[in-house]
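At this stage, I put together a protein sequence along with its fold in token form, as given directly below:
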Amino acid sequence: MKRRSLIKAFTLSASIAAMGLSWSIQAAETIKVGILHSLSGTMAISETSLKDMALMTIEQINAKGGVNGKLLEPVVVDPASNWPLFAEKGRQLLTQDKVAVVFGCWTSVSRKSVLPVFEELNGLLFYPVQYEGEEMSPNVFYTGAAPNQQAIPAVEYLMSEDGGSAKRYFLLGTDYVYPRTTNKILRAFLHSKGVADKDIEEVYTPFGHSDYQTIVANIKKFSAGGKTAVISTVNGDSNVPFYKELANQGLKATDVPVVAFSVGEEELRGIDTKPLVGHLAAWNYFESVDNPVNSQFVADWKAYAKAKNLPGADKAVTNDPMEATYVGIHMWAQAVEKAKSTDVDKVREALAGQTFKAPSGYTLTMDKSNHHLHKPVMIGEIQDDGQFNVVWETGQPLRAQPWSPFIPGNDKRPDYAVKGN
């Protein structure tokens, strides 16, 4: 009897050991993916939700069996709104963690910080935020908007009768490469439309700036010279005091509309938006768009936020960079499946022409040559519940023009020459 029990025990132990070995092998058979977003510092207000959206998307892909039979294993790092640290953390993800791809960055200065690292090591970065263009790398896929997919259409709208027929423009931005380059493009565009320099004001504030009393007073003074619109490229947590000051000084959208390129549902979540009704944002997606794909996307996100007990889960919202993150991860996964490999060169080739039915309601295409998505453009008005009512849209995706035709010399550039494609 004892001998039979011993045999049973040995057999059970062997089975458990074999199962453990199997689990270890299975655990080793994962594909590591990097998530490079600021979870602290001035940009955490915008970037934390992108980290969480990436984790949700990875979880959903894994629930369907992963990619090429392997589960995705996220590796999350926090560059803490410290631009040189982005490069250090990017190098860590590629050389130490051995990730197959990285999803991350928000500001252009963070992207430009990591760019040499990704080009040196032939890494793959998916960048999910609107930017100033004037760049192309074989190692970056841009799933946010180029200027012709956001900034230029927004200003054209402000010039139109529906947008208020603005004649004067106050360009307000955070002091770094994206606002300065975007405003260089916009100034040149405004000149092409006959707007003189005396009707353009350009002001910059540092990251984390919180005192907008004088600036808003100057906007009011500037607007006395004719119909005025504010074009805001303010980034990060500075948007909260800026919008609060607009309300404090009673600057309403009917007087001077503000169109923002870096303010969405997430940034408005902690603000009383009633005084801001009618101010605008230009994006390629809003949570409020009505279609079945978006309804499921929003429901999944709210359920995920609640299940993971994320901060403010009861008021969880989606926004444009979150959608771009979601689309980018799915497109990368599709390309890996097509290439049957995570090899960067093979995946890069497989990404060309990939399509995905996005929550925006449009089928988005990764351009075959310029590493940018074809995207629709939408102008939304802030509502008193912090959502946006879409007042104008292109009706179809636009192909990105990363090299703006309004910058001298860009007309001589090929629309894109991507080495390695």
